[in-house]
Design a protein that fits this description.
The protein is mainly β and 204 residues long. The chain has two domains: 4-99, no CATH class; 133-191, no CATH class. The protein is built from two helices and 13 strands, in the order E-E-E-E-E-E-E-E-H-E-E-E-E-E-H. The strands form three sheets. A five-stranded mixed beta sheet has the order 1-8-7-4-5, with no helix packed on it. Strands 9-10-11-12-13 form a five-stranded antiparallel beta sheet. Strands 2-3-6 form a three-stranded antiparallel beta sheet, with no helix packed on it. Strand 7 and strand 8 form a beta hairpin. It starts with 10 loop residues before the first strand and ends in a 13-residue tail after the last helix.
């Protein structure tokens, strides 16, 4: 009886990845079973995660919840590994993968008047405004992760186990320790005063 779990195999998930503007969209053919969860991880083709039956795929290890719209961000040739997990313990019950295509772009580089968006200097500056929430999160070491169907953006610091979420107004942000689920809601002015975020994963 002790060897029963050794005979269990993962359900094979049929995952497809389609290009979208700025990233890709993941689709899984099979419906989610019961109260199961689905998470994903984007890696190089030679660094795909090893997932077996009962492998715990937790947020602290870099797994991300699959957004409602399936939108992910990666580069051409990377692999998105999708897992189906138990609601309790996040234990693997299914696995699938897809190679990411190149993102598409509908930006022609010209505005309605037919003028180029590239400044005369030739320098295209993609940095966020210096007084913005995005600029403050970058300062604290976080990077963009995903945007859900409601427009809520998720930013993460994988090394410190930090998740930050904010809506389109970006006047406040919820900062969460992914290991403990402890969080704080901060205004933009309060974020500007933060010099470091300590978590159970990393505390200097």
């Amino acid at each position: 009886m002790a060897d029963e779990n050794n005979n269990q195999t993962l359900t094979v998930l049929t995952v497809t990845a389609a290009p979208r503007v700025g990233g890709q969209s993941l689709t899984v053919a099979e419906p989610v079973q019961g109260n199961d969860l689905r998470r994903y991880k984007v890696t190089a083709a030679d660094a795909k995660p090893v997932v077996e039956y009962d492998t715990a795929c937790v947020l602290a290890d870099g797994w991300l919840d699959v957004p409602a719209d399936g939108a992910v961000t990666g580069v051409e040739g990377q692999v998105a590994t999708v897992v189906e997990l138990t609601n309790s313990g996040a234990l693997a019950r299914g696995r699938g993968e897809a190679v990411l295509p190149a993102p598409t772009s509908t930006d022609t580089g010209e505005d309605d008047a037919g003028e180029s968006d590239v400044p005369a200097s030739g320098v295209l500056d993609l940095r966020p405004p210096s007084e913005s929430m995005k600029a403050e999160l970058c300062r604290l070491g976080l990077e963009y992760s995903s945007t859900d169907a409601a427009g809520v953006e998720s930013w993460r610091d994988y090394q410190r186990g930090v998740l930050a979420t904010f809506d389109q107004d970006a006047q406040s942000v919820t900062v969460t320790d992914v290991k403990t689920n402890l969080s704080a809601v901060l205004s933009l002015d309060e974020v500007r005063k933060v010099t470091r975020i300590d978590t159970m994963t990393a505390a200097d």
